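For the sake of transparency, this paper describes our internal protein records without simplification. Such a record has a labelled line for the sequence and another for the backbone structure tokens. Nothing more is needed to write down the fold, since each code stands for a local backbone conformation. For reference, a complete record is included directly beneath this paragraph.
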Amino acid sequence: MNEQETYQQGQASAAPNSPGAPPLAPPPLPPAAPPAAPVTIRRSPGLAVVLSCFPGLGHLYLGLYQRAFAVFISFVAAIWLSEHSTLGILVAGVVLFGFVDAYRQAQALNLGLVAEPTSAAAPGVAPARGSRLGFGVFLLLAGVFLLYNQFYPVDFTFLEDWWPGLLVLAGVYMVFAHVRDKRRQAERAAAAGATSSDSPRAF
């Protein structure tokens, strides 16, 4: 009796491995981990308004470099027009716009209504680190220049003749930024297409 039970158990264990038996189903895969939440960095709207006392500095704090440059150039142009015409009211208008826009942009960034300023280096890296580095470099250079100007005043009279060069530089920068963004978008699209073509297809 013991030998018969042993034989039956051996047949039962060998049955799944027989050629005619259907293959065993693979074990179910573990559930995928949930995607990581995007890292958002909050900006202080109050600090952006305070820094906007110097037009463009509040937008620079927010990482909006093109907007900061546009506000600063508008402020310089308004000062020049106020000295050569009766349009002094433009200076107050540019400053007021800088205050309001810096506050609204900070709130929009915190609420996710405006895309974060990103650097195309590595996805998943918080873009604020690059903006903080640029903001710190700007403050360092501005502080050194203002300190130098306290002891050795710099003559800015040449700007009366050469100020249109600032507009030329602004235009060159915007064209370069547009071409650079288009090139990066094309590279991302090509990389995404290569990834999708290399992925195995189910038949």
About this structure: Residues 164-198 form the longest helix (35 residues).
